[in-house]
Design goal:
Chain A is an alpha/beta fold. Chain A is built from 13 helices and 22 strands. Chains A and B meet through α1 and α2 of A and α1 and α2 of B.
Amino acid sequence: MRPLVFTVALEATAPSLHDNTGDIDRLKKAVSAAGGIAVQIPLRRMGPIAANFRQAGFRGVAVINDLPAGAVLVDFLAEQPSVLPAMALDLGTTHLEASLINLLDGRVLASGNRENSQIEFGADILTRIHYAGKGNGLRRLHEAVVGAINGLAADLADKAGEKREHIRALSVSGNTTMVHLLLQLDPYHLCREPYIPLVNAPDPFAAAEIGLALHGAAPVWVMPSIGSYFGGDLISGIVASGLDQQEETCMLIDVGTNAEVVVGNREWLIACAGAAGPALEGGVARMGMRAGPGAIEHVEIDPLTLELRCRTIDGGKARGICGSGIIDLVACLYLARIIDIRGKFRPERCPERFVDTPQGAGFVVVAAEEAANGEPVVLGQVDLDAMMRSKAAMYSILTTLINQVGLEFADLHRIYVAGAFGRHIDPRRAITLGMLPDLPLTTFQPVGNSSLAGAELALLDRGDRERCLGLINKITYLELNVNQEFMIRFSGSRFIPHTDTSLFPSVPVFD
Amino acid sequence: MRPLVFTVALEATAPSLHDNTGDIDRLKKAVSAAGGIAVQIPLRRMGPIAANFRQAGFRGVAVINDLPAGAVLVDFLAEQPSVLPAMALDLGTTHLEASLINLLDGRVLASGNRENSQIEFGADILTRIHYAGKGNGLRRLHEAVVGAINGLAADLADKAGEKREHIRALSVSGNTTMVHLLLQLDPYHLCREPYIPLVNAPDPFAAAEIGLALHGAAPVWVMPSIGSYFGGDLISGIVASGLDQQEETCMLIDVGTNAEVVVGNREWLIACAGAAGPALEGGVARMGMRAGPGAIEHVEIDPLTLELRCRTIDGGKARGICGSGIIDLVACLYLARIIDIRGKFRPERCPERFVDTPQGAGFVVVAAEEAANGEPVVLGQVDLDAMMRSKAAMYSILTTLINQVGLEFADLHRIYVAGAFGRHIDPRRAITLGMLPDLPLTTFQPVGNSSLAGAELALLDRGDRERCLGLINKITYLELNVNQEFMIRFSGSRFIPHTDTSLFPSVPVFD
């Protein structure tokens, strides 16, 4: 295990007339003798390091950054510290999630999250890319997210009883656009055919170079991406799930703004990404919201009495409905025959639950008097149509990919489902909709915030950092934007569960 | 040949939907394919480099810094440039001497020199070390020399028709104290037993880090030192003379503020340094001056008529006397029997050439009416005594060193004499004084400013840079400050030519 920053305890012989080696050269020799490591020492650190080394009597502990270009000695301490804090960051489009890790033992010292302050300049990736192209937009986006990270770093340090300036390293896992904006790199080509990032695998740099107020010598390690639509967050998912190390072929599904899917094993990996997410993230439905307080995450409808019960994430009154809630709701509406196989409302089934809205008939999930802010939670046909497109896109992505490698879904040993989607979704409901393949429920395994988990792994071991960098050359990327097969499959998937009902034997077929 | 900065011409395949490699990653792959080199690209250079690479149609020329930690790609040009200017600097205590080199062909584009602006804070090394310890003295010394280098860089660029900001690299060769002050490193321990530098071999750093106004990505490569009294300037002398590569055993003598001496061959090298210089640099004699306009560099005295003729460096009227002039003068005074073997004046030999001074009788070298500023050039007994100590120190250093390795002077194939001292001195006169050993005159070979020559070699080839770094581990350093033998030899050398006249068969002995 070689963390991004590590220590080497050493003892050098003291200088004398017979050994006039310079302080810094003496220290380098001692590090080499104690740890077998050749180190560089940056100009600005030489003075303080030499002073500490002398003051400590030419013995103590060297603090070393493990970088691809070699080891860099950045500090010298008289005593072995008990904590060497470093921050792992999941850099999301809407939220940042982070943990503070003790690099000496891998223990989590604190966890926390913040909103991505870039939201004030645009809720989604495309808006931000366009904003970046105007005036000093790129700089403002950059500064906004750096400010949010600095704030989150302070939160974590407070919780752990540390100081932010003592955080020795940062690892970042995020989508390709978020990484470009963090590094203040022009994202212009990311959203324009042929969708080329400015950089996939940036070399590590100093946190101070981008205005991060961590330890002055803290390096930033960025999880590499594969393309504009396949970011470091998914590389994190692969290493966190172990997809790339298993003998059995498995699949990883990460639904954020896009649906990103990887299938493979330790021999090969193939991946693709497509726009399937908005409805699932709660970003399309009018009452849609992110999984959070007041969000309906679970719905049941009795097919006979049509009684509806729902549960919010915090158990409080409903304010809206999140991705997993919409999947539950639509699946139940289908099983209760309140929508048909084309995903169209059948208001005649229970007219009392429908209201007129400016966009047509809407299904009342929670009535105004029971909702959090006196407004009913209503699912409109527009929302339903978006949901149908999302589920069709998702299933088409999965089938196109699996077909590409000549496999069938039954050949998959596991399907890892990442993120909030994986944590909250009920695979049974997603199968009913024809969104996920009709496999035994034990096949589906949530992997939590695997973007953050990957960033943590990268902090803790060089082997995993090299593994991540190796992955970008190992993964075959399938571009769906120009894939004819995908478009054909998409059409066939716009029914519940599918035009080919034999694909979903466990789902009841009506009509 | 791998210069400190070099270019690689390349052509990459253009991006497409089937090849979504990022711009920076694409460039790295192309460099690897064209030059077999893995490069890093610093964060701040990524944006402009990617933009240039795109604009040039993914073909052109990568500009790469060759650093010990690996190659760093710092620029991308559409066309192969004809000139890649870099600056080699001899960082002297009193003067800076520099050349501008085209790294593409090794040609010298311009040469120049400037005073070391640190002189206003102290003429010699010790004064500056003390000054550095007071308040912001170190910073002021640092800024003074950086300002002088920036000025000199502008001079060179002007002469060569280039811009200072286009200078792509700097190599520096100087004594250990000058290097510490340039790097703004505390020189406190350099002059205090056991005389330990803060650093001998600093890792390369960016010119901008110390305030140098060269190209934004220019690296600074510093010639390593061996100890406080054995600086990078002497390492330069070794590589410039080739002392470390020859089968025959040779010696290198560099007389600056100190006398630094190396003896050896391609198998072994031993070195020492001692205070022998001041008188020889023109720093002790009251009328002493650096070799420059108005400095007497050559003196003849007819032993019979006692007629004295002298020549200044520029052929103009005399203002003072430089090191080689003093050696000539004292040797002639001895041969004319105007001083005795103990180096004491014998005014009775030519009373008309002596005047009374506040320090006693003084020998008039140039009368007031023939001198440049109406003041006579006079050599006093005090000056003479200093000269005698210097020459005794020099010979003692040489004999102590040669004795240390069990050799005799006759075993030396060559004696390289560096610097202005080597350029102007007449070895015959130095032998007369007993300062240099009594060897055939062809043994002595001036090597010019070998400090600058070494810096130039370092700019042009990685092999030579590695050779320099290797030298600091190859050279055995003999500390004279605690050497008993040296003190005994010093006493025996305070006669002209020596107490043991058999050592100098070519020198006439009087009395």
